[in-house]
Task: inverse folding
């Protein structure tokens, strides 16, 4: 068993890229990632192609993936319709939904207010439960808020309590959507959430510059987190957040930190190098 569960997020890496990456290229890259040993692959999304044109081919991509891999597939949805479509595919294990603790960002990201998003989330949880899928809720703006909405660890904990006790959601990932997290806040928040909600599996979806990666990882790990999202070379970010995208936590930096601590992450070094090289080729060509 690995000490750490690694989640690779090519969906997040690709979604903000303007030039369309050919479906065949996506399939080849994702199939290589499926050989690396990741616990989960955040591979695509079932959202409006007008909102995220880059991922309009998610269904076609899915048809070409190696479903015999032990890596579980995760797809993002933004509403009931997307959830109904996503759960129809046996290959998908996890359905992800971005629920913001910021009213302003929820409107920017899914065009709904928090009260309405909560109702949508309840519908999606029912759909997932009925179809034996697990729902992962990403708590956007989980480490701070640039929009003037109230934010504190207590705000995040209050939403976790509501989602857990009222909707039965047991997988959540506080998300540093804009790269504003500070190590002391990250450690304190995970320590608090993991202590008060022992039945919830928490993950870290951190966006950061490469120079900040190790300090944030260490903070989350010291806070008790053992599930980490990343993307090779730190590509990606949320196109709904701001114009200057802050990239994902670089997978190679995460692995470097874990190796230095003697932590097992389950990734195959040779295949990981191949994937990193392919990522560089793709993201330099399509940008």
Result:
């Amino acid at each position: 068993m690995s000490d750490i569960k690694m989640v690779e997020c090519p969906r997040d890496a690709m979604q903000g890229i303007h030039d369309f990456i050919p479906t065949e290229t996506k399939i080849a890259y994702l199939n290589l990632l499926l050989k690396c040993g990741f616990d989960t692959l955040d591979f695509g999304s079932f959202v409006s192609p007008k909102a995220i044109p880059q991922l309009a081919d998610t269904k076609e991509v899915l048809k070409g993936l190696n479903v015999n891999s032990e890596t579980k597939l995760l797809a993002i949805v933004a509403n009931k319709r997307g959830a109904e479509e996503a759960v129809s595919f046996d290959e998908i294990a996890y359905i992800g939904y971005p629920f913001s603790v910021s009213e302003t960002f929820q409107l920017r990201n899914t065009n709904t207010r928090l009260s309405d998003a909560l109702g949508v989330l309840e519908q999606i949880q029912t759909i997932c439960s009925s179809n034996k899928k697990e729902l992962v809720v990403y708590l956007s703006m989980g480490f701070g808020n640039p929009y003037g909405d109230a934010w504190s660890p207590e705000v995040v904990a209050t939403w976790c309590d509501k989602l857990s006790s009222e909707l039965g959601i047991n997988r959540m990932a506080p998300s540093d959507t804009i790269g504003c997290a500070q190590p002391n806040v990250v450690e304190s928040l995970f320590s608090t959430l993991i202590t008060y909600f022992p039945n919830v599996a928490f993950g870290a979806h951190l966006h950061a510059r490469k120079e900040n990666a190790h300090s944030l990882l260490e903070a989350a790990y010291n806070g008790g987190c053992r599930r980490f999202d990343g993307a090779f070379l730190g590509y990606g970010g949320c196109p709904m957040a701001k114009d200057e995208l802050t990239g994902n936590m670089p997978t190679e930096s995460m692995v470097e930190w874990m190796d230095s601590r003697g932590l097992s992450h389950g990734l195959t070094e040779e295949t990981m190098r191949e994937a990193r090289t392919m990522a560089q080729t793709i993201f330099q060509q399509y940008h």
About this structure: The radius of gyration is 17 Å. Residues 239-243 have pLDDT under 50 and may be disordered.
